[in-house]
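Regression report. Comparing outputs from two consecutive submissions.

Submission 1:
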Amino acid sequence: MTEILPSQSSSLDDWLCYLESVHPANIEMGLERVERVANQVGLLDTSSKIILIAGTNGKGTTARCLESLLLAQGYSVGTYASPHLIRYNERVRINGQELDDQFHVDAFDMLEKGRGDTQLTYFEYGTLGALAIFKRHAVDYVLLEVGLGGRFDATNIVNPHACVITTIDLDHKEYLGDTRELVGYDKAGIFRTNTPAIVGDLAIPHTVTDYGNEINAEMVLSGRDFIFTEDSEGFNWQYQGNDWRLAKPAIPCQNAATALTLLAKLELLPSEQQVRDCLANLTVEGRFQQLSEQPLIFTDVAHNPESARYLARKLSVYKDQGFKIHALVAMLADKDKVAAMSAVANVVDQWSLASLDCFRGDKVENLAKALAETTSTAPSTHYESVETALDTLLPNVDENTLVIVFGSFITVAAAINYFKK
């Protein structure tokens, strides 16, 4: 444990180092501890309307879409997301902007003084810190991304104005279970009685609707209550008399449709022109983000089967244009590497595998074993780090090759930092 307790005059880095040391577990499921501290410091008594956003993938892009559409109507918005790519400050936004370090330091100092002898994990400190910042700014709406699952996630201590489940797939199986039904039941734990609950998944497990019906949540379901269809040019969205044809945004159309449905349900839907303008300008760092035009380099945080399937669809567009696809992959040890790489294997012509030298980071040897279990016959090269791989690859990439760097948030951060330098 860090011996020196940070203070209100300490740096944010000092506080983050301290928060990483004060709880023996990275993840501890359950709400009792975090709810106790939240009540002790008065965080649950807020005038802000909170929207809880859960899902295996798509939470960040859905939140970014909602943020943009609410800001366009003049509302003040606080957004909490995790993990961050480069800076901790990315996790909390007020009206789309990151905050100075001191706001986070003030929040952590308040929590440390108010928590008593209750231990908190790093994520729980971050969640409560974000709630403290949002209360301090008295924002109209809070967009709160659920960290893991839903039912026992620290974010689930709040009384939400509405709830969203974006997608449901297998990830964090050691905590959530190894079937979509188990995962769906856990995520449905954010639902509340007589509270709007929007579900954007395209094949909703019965456990989600069973629980929603049991507690009488106001469920609005994809495929039943709102319709979303997509083609190469854009997507169609239908709900409550709205029948809109919209251009394809930089985020998954499914998540945009889910966001629009939530706002319509809450009677907060902007005009069609405002929606078009917001979608046209949406960008989310790390989601099929272009890092270089020549050579053509993209990066993506895809790290589980569902997100990898979406990435494969994005890459297939370039494949159909005649590009060869070179995948540089580095992943965490607890991810389903075989399933993730299998999802993109049919579009990949060359693999580069790299180790991640970080907590939970996996070694390149394990990635190679996982790749051998896929159907891919494309050749592979192995590297000790993402940076080393890029040093070697970039001078040899021709104009007909697209390089995609993916596998985790840490992988994407390494690629972004490489190009910034």
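Submission 2:
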Amino acid sequence: MIVIAAIVIGALLGWRRALALGGNRRDRAQYAAAFALAFAVIGLFATVIIDRMM
């Protein structure tokens, strides 16, 4: 669940970042994908750490 939320949040933040930098639609999609992947990895680590604590 954390990973899915992280992907969505990452994609939105990436899209907004590219928009702020003046990127076209392809730039926005690339930023959204990169941020989504980065946030997914962070979310995965968070999920594993939380699971190990319990």
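Expected: both submissions complete independently.
Actual: both completed, but the second showed a warning that disappeared on reload.
Relevant detail on submission 2: The first helix runs from residue 2 to 20.
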